Amino acid sequence: MATEKSTVTASLPENPMLATALNKLEAAFDALDLNEGIRAFIRHPERELKVSVPIYRADGNIQVFTGYRVQHSSARGPCKGGVRFHPDVDLDEVRALAMLMSIKCAIANVPFGGAKGGVCVDPSELTKVELERLTRRYTHMILPILGKQRDIPAPDMNTNAQTMAWMMDTVSALQSESSTAITTGKPICLGGSEGRAEATGRGVVITMVEALKRLGQDPAKVSVAIQGFGNVGSHAAKIMSAEFKSKVVAVSDDTGGLYNPNGLNLDAICKHVDESPRHRLEGYSAEGTKQISNSELLTLDVDVLVPAAIENQITEKNANDIKAKLIVEGANGPVTHQADKILVDKGVILIPDILANAGGVVTSYFEWVQDLQSFFWNLEDVRSKLTEIMKRAFAEAWDMAQEKNTDLRSASFILAVKRIADAIEQRGLFP
Ligand code: NAD
What we know:
Elements: H1 16-32, H2 36-43, E1 47-56, E2 62-73, E3 79-85, H3 91-108, E4 113-119, H4 128-142, E5 151-155, H5 161-175, H6 196-214, E6 223-227, H7 231-244, E7 247-253, E8 256-259, H8 266-275, E9 290-292, H9 294-298, E10 304-307, E11 326-328, H10 337-346, E12 349-351, H11 353-356, H12 359-373, H13 379-404, H14 408-427
Parallel strand pairs: 3-4, 3-5, 6-7, 6-10, 10-11, 11-12
Antiparallel strand pairs: 1-2, 2-4, 7-8, 8-9
Helix pairs in contact: 1-3, 1-14, 3-14, 4-5, 6-7, 6-12, 6-13, 12-13, 13-14
């Protein structure tokens, strides 16, 4: 394996997510004392594809959108990662997210590398028919680098099971065969997996419980505040309350939060969200429960805080006011780089997104395995295998943190980079 200095040095990207990811990578390289050749290998995405995606709009005119698919690493297996439809999508963001997928898959030790894709579009401006045309044409444009043993997309921001069904159907039509294993996150009737919807929330709870065990705390005796009551936040709330008897005292969404120091009535809140026209918390009221803002929720005097909404919620402005001793990142990137340092210095235990919310990709892995075998598991199988993998990943990250005397985020990067570097070393270079 090459040991000479790489001629390519790490650039300083403007995109904060990519800059933060590269920073963490460099720290892991140093901790592992990797040679420059391997560092350069891991810094650079293997393949980047930029595509033009023309579609007929409803008025008969053609509009061209820009899309991307970046494959960061296939050293550990086929590339795996979501597709997002958002006006802010650009190459650097997709690069950063692809790299983080390599890291996340390596921490969970599922046999995937990392990828990400996206189209620069505001999907709310498209009709359902236009969205389907966009999805199918984008799939066609990136198909040369997709494949069930090459690169397997999944849903991400503003894409869902329907998007994955359209992508899978497009590939199946073009290849004249049923290609269910080409995407994950599909509807169950098209090869989706039982337990996928709850998987990320369940993984968040498993890592929380594992951390509490090591801190000598009983999950049934902790109070928890959860920001975000969507897929991740609502499932995490229900699972920790029903299965571990944790006291969920606060939840919030983009309409504001609810707080009851004696514990919220989650059944009543979920019923309200299900039945309200916008599926939001707004309008819910109950005796002993008061309305709070999202910023108040983050600084409540609770044992555990689960930011499960959007990125950049805990910053250098509010990090010093956080009272929770354990933070579990359900969302991607809810704590900024600066806030992360403040919290670590304060002694807060922070389970990073790349570990805490890996339950989604682990269950995507299960879906892929089931599709390849055309043999489907029941919910209990999925839950028990997910629990086993998440517990193992947490234990390995925790042990690495002890060994390297560092925080869990840095330890998770070290663990992942070591696995990717080992795979690269063992493969050697072609030709
Ligand atoms: P979602 O759209 O189902 O829910 C998001 C929730 O956050 C909603 O309740 C929304 O109202 C709330 N929210 C939005 N803006 C907010 C704001 N400014 N303040 C407070 N709340 C706000 O999304 P999700 O699937 O639950 O994903 C949440 C986070 O978890 C995202 O960062 C996502 O990338 C990450 N994630 C999700 C999965 C998954 O499987 N769904 C997997 C890995 C990571």
